[in-house]
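Re-run with default settings, no changes from the original entry. Doing this only to confirm the output is reproducible before filing.
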Amino acid sequence: MKSHDSSRPLIVQSDRTVLLETGEPLYEKARDRLIPFAELVRSPEHVHTYRITPLSLWNAAAAGLSADQIIETLEQYSKYEVPANIIVDIRDLIARYGTLQLVRRASGELVLHCKNSLLFTEMRHDRRVAPYLVRQVGPKTVVIDPAVRGLLKQALVKIGYPVEDIAGYTDGEPLEISLRTQTGAGKQFALRDYQRDAVASFYTGGSNLGGSGVVVLPCGAGKTVVGMAAGMSPILELTGSGVLERHPDLQFVITESECGWLAWALQGLGEKMPPPAKKPRRKKK
């Protein structure tokens, strides 16, 4: 049984919410350790509220965090003992990441491989997932249509299992672009350290683990610049994954909205979405 330690800034609750007291000396260290696996819900002056969700844990797993590392952080900074159900949930949800893998065969086909026979059977008969599966090619492997790659991953998240996507993308035509070293006003210009880190995380060294994601930064932190820098790496594979073949006039565009840079908007162009129905014209009397 862990004794109470008032100097620690976290209070972990059984509903997966985590309270972070900003006035404690360890606040900043605890915040930096918490952010990779918990979502900020609200941040008033004295107590910030985070929530541990399946998606936040799977994102942490994708970034290389283990269940032991997450639990260690909570136990290290929590005022009170971490509820037992939280530890069980973290281990269970982290263990699910990697059970389903999306890979590309030598023939170029995209296949979904499942490491669990019972889950594979459940997945094939689930009405939310089955429409995106083409044909079974192994005991626990099924071919999928590349055009519904994103929709399939969304459907699998809804049944509680994320997909580890290591299929990569089809190489597109190279595009020679670069950032300025000076602004239009003649001032020196270069990426900041955290912007370079964001690009490196997105690109992942050009491996099949990179090329997907959304850049999330505070207002004024340079989301557009990060997006442009990512586009200068072979990340243009993102737009060359079959989308360009169906949309030959597509240009590489970075767009802003209230939720940041929407890189995933490009993928929507490749989904099998029917064109909007034309409204019948009213006849003039």
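The radius of gyration is 22 Å. The first helix runs from residue 27 to 34.
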